[in-house]
Every structure is written in structure tokens, then in C-alpha cells.
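Lab manual, section 2.4: Encoding a predicted structure.

Procedure: take the sequence of the chain (191 residues), apply the prediction step described in section 2.3, and record the output as C-alpha cells. A sample record is shown.
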Amino acid sequence: MFGSNDITWCMSKCSNTECFRNPIHLKDKVGLHSYADLKDTIYCQDIKVTTQERGWAGHFICCDKCSFRRNTLVTCGDIKWIVSTVGAMRSSINIPELNIKVGQIQEIRPGCWYETMAFESTYDEYDDADVSKRISFEHDWGIFGDTWEDIEQKYGKDVDNVANNMHDEIVEEIKLKIKEAYINAKTSNTI
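Recorded output:
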């Protein structure tokens, strides 16, 4: 993207020379170019969003039985959100009436074998997910099928990679949303 003339260049007095919108990256200084003050907008590259992978599940009461667990803390300024994915839940007991054996993979909920959710932080020492404050997103949030065999037929034997990609794509969406939330809060002086 560096050196392009087909973007809006930032007019703010920002010292971030890494930002591709900084006019120092103009290839051709002559000619008509589009300029706008992008400071404190969603397009500002100077607003940092960070992520941190954590080693515990972020949601789901039976998460201790899940072979797949991801928990990503997304931070922008003072705002902290959590993206949590769980799946591949293994039965800890035999349930003959349901034809389930110890270690067999079970659904998280009917027809869903992996799920991803996002929440605001509890803002405590661990920044755990406040499951009463769910954050919506547009991306597909689950891996669905009637049976585990259906899942393996549809996604292959390594379904965890599909769940990993789903989690990463949702983290990217949440990073954009948290940046927008931070800018809105800053603009309305609520932070």
C-alpha cells in the first residue's frame, strides 16, 4: 500500500511515519490528491489495538471437557474484550441411553460442535469474560452438523484448524469493532 496515490492522505500532524496514510509516502507529489483529518477516526493507524492469547477457556460451563479452547484478549485504550472459542467436547462418562462412550466427542449445543463468542471484560485482575455482556459480530460463529462423522466429512479430520481460522477471523472483526468503540467513546468523552 505504501507509495499509492489512490488513497485519502491524512492531514493531521501525526508523527507516525509507519502509517501508510502519512503524506510522506506520496510517490507523486504533483497532482490532485484526497486529504482528510483522520486523527481519532477508524482510519487512524495511530490507534493501537493489541491481542493477547491466554491459556484458559473464556466461556462455557463444560469448557474443562473441551479439547479445543482459545481465549484472546483484545485491547484498545481502556476497552478490553474477549473472544472465546470452545469445541471438541469429550464425554467424561458413558451414557448408554444416548449411545455415548467415555472420550467420545459431543455437541456443545444441539447441532453445534464448536462455538465462538465475544464478551466485554470483567475488568478484574484476569480480565475474564463478563458473560452477561456479549458482543455481537457478523462472522459465522459455529461449526455445525448432525453427527461428528458429518463434521469430519464436511471439514476433514483436522476440524481444529477450521475452528482456529474461525476464531482468528472473528478476532480480526472484533479488532475493528473495538477500535470503533474506542473512537466513539473518546469522541463522546465517556473515557
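Check your result against the sample. The chain is about 20% helix and 30% strand.
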